[in-house]
Design a protein that fits this description.
The radius of gyration is 49 Å and the shape is elongated. Helix content is 20%, strand content 41%. The longest helix has 27 residues. The protein has eight helices and 21 strands. Strands 2, 5, 7, 8, 9, 10, 11, 12 and 13 form a nine-stranded mixed beta sheet that branches. The N and C termini lie far apart (164 Å). The protein is an alpha+beta fold.
């Protein structure tokens, strides 16, 4: 009975929410908050940045480009190539566009495409055409209130012409004859107006720059590759090709020559040859006739007046090894003893003398 009475008065109604709280429920609730709160903040930030804002007026650098490489386009007005405009769009997009506008990278400038088929001359295009640039269309930014309202530009045809290559007479004065160039001309490719100006100024020529080249100091024929060119214009719209050539030229002889009528040949032999009873017998003339000497004009003048010392001479070098051919004719190239600044020509440098060793009896122990 007592138990039944107790059960009768026990509360059996619905339990309150606090009665369902457990440790697991608390952890689940905290885990949910851990990602819900940051996500909510991100949504708030995104919504804030997507609000429409306005910027400007700002200076927008503009470049005009043609769809064809046969023409070149230049902006005439505004002179600095900048269009003032107001911009409207999401704040994040405006920030991105502003970074592009203010960068110095030419690849990120605002381009306007113009018709390449228009006639050469002066033309205008609406400044609002910059709104079609992908910089704005891809970011959802609107361009408004441009100043000036029109962009004035010029169109020129790109033309080609051949310019002969020459040597500057002012830089190189010691060449014998006309140099040869490979290729003999270079190609000009640029605006018609530049070509017209070069023609009017009589500057339709490219000069091979050999200034300071060491080969210019050496008499004879030389071939120098990759010689840079001095071009008649540095206009950035002009291309010359090639930029270097091969030059073949002959440097004339700047030194004077003098024919020495008779030059004695001295014999240089070790004394032991005489001790062993041999003497050197020159079979040809003991003098070299008509030896051509070369040198600077002042040195040659002293040779002509016979005042230059020491006197030029040649000598024949004999050695003990020549005893193996004693009695036979030996041919040997002579050597020269010459004053400073004097040398023999290549032909005379290889002249020879015939001699033999003759047994005349010993004057001492062999």
């Amino acid at each position: 009975m007592p138990n039944s009475v107790t059960n009768r008065f026990r509360y059996i109604g619905p339990r309150g929410p606090w009665r369902n709280i457990s440790r697991d429920n608390i952890f689940d609730w905290l885990r949910t908050l851990a990602w819900v709160i940051p996500l909510t903040l991100l949504v708030w930030i995104w919504a804030e940045r997507q609000q429409i804002a306005r910027m400007g007026p700002v200076a927008i650098p503009v470049t005009l480009q043609a769809s064809s490489g046969d023409v070149i386009v230049h902006i005439l007005s505004p002179a600095d190539g900048n269009v003032m405009a107001e911009l409207s769009g999401p704040q994040t997009a405006l920030d991105k566009v502003r970074n592009v506008i203010f960068t110095a990278n030419a690849e990120q400038r605002i381009y306007i495409n113009v018709d390449a088929n228009v006639a050469p001359g002066r033309h205008e295009i609406s400044a609002l055409a910059i709104a079609n640039s992908s910089v704005f269309t891809n970011s959802g930014v609107t361009v408004m209130n441009t100043t000036p309202g029109q962009i004035t530009y010029s169109v020129e045809r790109i033309v080609e012409a051949n310019l002969p290559v020459q040597m500057s007479a002012a830089d190189v004065t010691n060449l014998d004859g006309v140099p040869a160039f490979d290729p003999p001309s270079v190609k000009f490719k640029g605006p018609q107006s530049v070509l017209d100006q070069l023609t009017a100024d009589r500057q339709m020529v490219a000069y091979a720059n050999l200034r300071g080249n060491d080969e210019l100091k050496l008499p004879g024929t030389h071939e120098v590759k990759s010689v840079p060119l001095i071009l008649p214009t540095t206009d950035s719209d002009v291309v010359f090709s090639p930029a270097a050539v091969t030059v073949t030229f002959k440097v004339r002889q700047t030194e004077e020559r003098f024919i020495y009528p008779s030059m004695p040949v001295w014999v240089l032999a070790p004394p032991v040859l005489a001790d062993r009873g041999y003497k050197v017998q020159i079979l040809s003339s003991p003098n070299l006739a008509n030896v051509t000497l070369a040198g600077s004009p002042d040195v040659i003048a002293q040779l002509r007046s016979n005042t230059l010392l020491p006197k030029p001479q040649a000598h024949l070098q004999v050695s003990l090894e020549d005893l193996t051919a004693a009695g036979s004719k030996i041919t040997r190239q002579v050597k020269y003893d010459l004053p400073d600044g004097v040398h023999v020509t290549p032909d005379d440098a290889v002249r020879t003398v015939d001699f033999r060793l003759v047994d005349v009896g010993s004057t001492g122990a062999r």
